[in-house]
Specification:
By secondary structure, the protein is of the alpha+beta class. The chain contains 12 helices and 13 strands.
Length: 813
């Protein structure tokens, strides 16, 4: 076997389908780091059955699927296909029927991997064995990677043995032997489990036997319980009858007592009516007495409060009298001190008035000179202020005119520059607008892309509908197949069980005659009841107990009229023919009537199993005998075999339907995937066309708005330039007409010198006036220091007057 081609689709970095042809000779792949050389070796190992994601440099097995990039979406599946030349027919027998082997492994995200050989699903183990037979594989030393030679040199004997086994081509045999050993161990485990199950079933059978005995005892005890319950219910019935009689007697006594109580209640109602008629007068009397009591209570409380207030008022007046006595003594002492102080202060006041009069006369002449100096200084300062204001106004006016001239000049220059900029930008926008493209062509392309997108979406929806329908059909076909398989399994199990029961005695030395009997359905109980254990006897001549031919039976008496020979419903060996001919089948209700007509050796039996014999023996129907059960089971086995054949045919048809549904689902899934891919491509193309059209339209509109704004700005700037130039010319003319400020500055300097002389003279006069004022203040301070006792006397008099006022108000109260 030779590897001829490797195909990768969606595996790691190979997002697009990529084919690598491996020609005879040496094939190599050369490229820089990160170009995907190692991904080729990992793809080979992955397709050969590698199950460890760590050896593939992945976090999990789904990571081998292309995860997407900046401009490519991620994929949901990955597939690697290896094409092998099998011209020498060295492949395993299961796949050795073709010269070309295509081994593929496909993985879907979160769904696991699927292996195929020439399109047929196989196990991973089959692929691993195929490559093991070829002395290679995912973990074979034949695949040499970085560091592999060092590993082989340093390998242990067991690892070197594996290298030799791969070189000798016996690795596949070892793998098969290991798998066979695993199966044998599993079979041993199953046998051990079967023995455990048999032991468990034996224990269950013992338990069921115990339960059967308990059920029999339960029925007996239940019958006794029912009898005891019937006796108990009868006794309760008798006791209930006695209770009913006693209750009737008590009822009569209660009726008489109720009549007596009714009479007493009527008498009490009459007395209550009399008392009720007297009640209003008593209530009026009670109300008047309560009102009088309430008035007296309120009056007493009012008097108590007045008495308490009077006592508090007396205590307050006593405290005030005591306080007033103390105040009067203190005020008298203060009054005597104040009179002495007033006499002393009168003499001091006379002295101070004489001194103040002398100071005032001396100070009046100084104040007149200060006033004259201040008037002269004010006039000079007023003239200086007027000249300063005029000079400031003239200077401000000239500065304002010069600034206006400069401002208008700079504005004219700025507006000229802005007009030039607007003109240049307008030309640039016109050039850019010409390169944006034609909106009509872009709209046509966008409409075409939209139509293709609509067709693709319609196709995708149709494919999705077909996929959903195929999946629903598959699910609908899976449930009937599962039911059919369960039915086949149930019938097979039942057939095996019945066959084991029915054929359990076939290995005996002399098989019983019952094995050769076929009974019409419904007559198993009848033949089991009438023949019983005789059916266990064989027909073999060597058997010590057997059935034999006993004549043709022509002299046997006929069965009573109205009976049906059992031989009409049973197919049996000829040894039983005479016996069956002398057994009649009758209805259960007619058996006793016809039993008297039986001849010697004849019997009657009902389908239910009732037996009447010619010698008077009668047996009622009971549970089916072992022979009846075996015959019923044999008939059931025939029915089951027929039903099993029908069930198998039905299951095969439903399995074919399921396979067809699976194939339809695969086809629908592939069609849906293709339709979705086409829809995504169409959506991408439509989005690109729509975005291009929108971008172009937006740019064209932006350019048009910008050109309109630039045109308005150019018109506004032209008007502003005209206005600025006229304003500049007017400001220059006004500045030329404005007078100079030199004359005003000369006058201002002369007035400033006069103001300096006046200020010096006024300062001398103020200094003299201030000296006189300080002397007067010193005199006033001396007079104030000499009269503190007079002031204290006046304050004491004022305090005395204030304290005496509340006393007078209190006395008035």
């Amino acid at each position: 076997m030779k590897l001829t081609r490797l195909r990768l689709h969606g595996f790691k970095s190979f997002v697009e389908p990529t084919d690598f042809l491996i020609e005879p000779g040496l094939t190599g792949v050369v490229g820089p780091n990160g170009c995907g050389k190692s991904n080729l070796v990992e793809a080979l190992r992955w397709a050969m059955g590698e199950t460890s994601h760590k050896s593939l440099r992945a976090t999990d097995m789904d990571s081998v699927i292309f995860a997407g990039s900046g401009n490519r979406p991620s994929r949901n599946h990955a597939e690697v296909v290896m094409t092998i030349d099998n011209a020498d027919r060295t492949a395993p027998a299961a796949v050795n029927d073709a010269e070309i082997l295509e081994i593929s492994r496909r993985i879907e995200r979160e769904a696991g991997s699927v292996y195929r050989i020439n399109g047929r699903d196989v196990r991973a183990r089959d692929v691993q064995l195929l490559f093991a037979d070829a002395a290679t594989g995912a973990r074979s030393p034949a695949l040499v990677h970085q560091g592999k030679i060092g590993e082989i040199i340093q390998a242990k004997p067991e690892q070197r043995r594996r290298v030799l086994e791969d070189a000798a081509g016996v690795a596949g045999l070892h793998a098969r032997r290991h798998e066979a050993e695993l199966r044998l161990r599993a079979a041993e485990t199953n046998l051990t489990r079967v023995e455990d199950v048999i032991g468990q079933l034996a224990g269950q059978m013992d338990g069921l036997k115990r339960q059967a005995r308990q059920a029999i005892r339960y029925r007996e005890v239940a019958a006794k319980v029912r009898k005891a319950e019937a006796m108990l219910f009868h006794l309760r019935w008798l006791e209930a009858n006695a209770d009913v009689t006693e209750a009737g007697r008590n009822h009569d006594l209660t009726v008489r007592e109720m009549a007596e109580r009714t009479r007493e209640q009527a008498e009490a109602a009459r007395i209550q009516a009399i008392r009720a008629s007297e009640l209003p007068g008593l209530r009026d009397t009670e109300a008047r007495a309560a009102a009088g009591l309430q008035r007296l209570t309120n009056a007493r409380e009012l008097l108590d409060r007045e008495e308490q207030r009077a006592k508090e008022r007396m205590e307050d007046l006593d405290r005030r009298l005591t306080q007033f006595g103390g105040d009067i003594g203190r005020e008298q002492r203060l009054s005597s001190d104040a009179d002495a102080a007033l006499e002393r202060l009168s003499s001091e006041d006379t002295t101070l008035k004489d001194e103040i009069k002398a100071h005032v006369e001396k100070r009046s002449g100084t104040d007149e000179r200060v006033s004259e100096a201040e008037v002269t200084l004010s006039a000079a300062e007023r003239t200086f202020s007027e000249l300063t204001t005029a000079l400031a106004d003239l200077t401000a006016k000239r500065n304002q005119l010069e600034a206006s001239v400069r401002s208008h000049q700079s504005r004219v220059e700025r507006l000229d520059q802005e007009i030039a900029n607007v003109t240049a930008e307008t030309a640039k926008l016109e050039g850019e607008t010409g390169t944006l493209g034609d909106l009509a062509e872009l709209a046509t392309s966008m409409d075409a892309a939209g139509q293709l997108l609509g067709h693709a979406e319609t196709s995708s929806q149709a494919s999705e509908t077909v996929h959903v329908s195929a999946r629903a059909k598959l699910e609908a076909a899976r449930a009937p197949l599962s039911d059919a398989d369960r039915r086949v399994q149930r019938l097979e199990t039942e057939a095996k069980t019945i066959s084991k029961i029915v054929n359990g005695e076939t290995k005996n030395l002399w098989p019983p005659i019952i094995d050769g009997i076929s009974v019409t359905k419904g007559y198993e109980k009848a033949i089991g009841a009438v023949l019983g254990d005789d059916l266990d006897a064989p027909v073999d001549p060597s058997a010590p107990m057997r059935w034999t031919l006993a004549g043709d039976g022509s002299d046997d008496p006929a069965l009573p009229e109205g009976t049906d020979p059992l031989s009409n419903h049973v197919k049996a060996p000829p040894e039983l023919a005479r016996r069956l001919a002398q057994i009649g089948v009758v209805a259960k209700e007619r058996g006793a009537q016809l039993a008297n007509e039986l001849k010697t050796g004849q019997r009657l039996v009902s389908p239910e199993g009732d037996v009447w014999r010619w010698d008077g023996f009668v047996a009622a129907a009971h549970a089916p005998t072992g022979a009846a059960r075996r015959l019923a089971e044999r008939a059931r086995l025939v029915d089951i075999e027929a039903e099993l054949e029908s069930a198998r045919t039905d299951a095969a048809a439903k399995r074919q339907a399921l396979e067809a549904a699976e194939q339809e689902l695969k086809t629908a899934a592939a069609a849906e995937s293709s339709a979705r891919e086409a829809s995504r491509n169409a959506q991408r193309d439509a989005n690109i066309a729509r975005e291009k059209h929108a971008t172009t339209e937006r740019e064209i509109n932006r350019h048009a708005a910008r050109r309109s704004a630039l045109a308005e700005a150019a018109a506004r700037l032209e008007a502003d330039v005209t206005e600025a130039r006229s304003a500049h010319q007017g400001a220059v003319a006004t500045l030329g007409e404005t007078p100079a400020t030199q004359e005003t500055e000369t006058k201002l300097a002369g007035v400033r010198e006069e103001i300096a002389g006046h200020r010096t003279k006024a300062a001398d006069v103020r200094a003299e006036a201030q000296a006189l004022a300080r002397e007067a203040e010193l005199a006033d301070a001396a007079s104030r220091r000499s009269s503190p006792r007079a002031a204290s006397g006046r304050r004491a008099s004022r305090m005395h007057r204030r304290r005496s006022r509340p006393s007078r108000r209190a006395s008035l109260k």
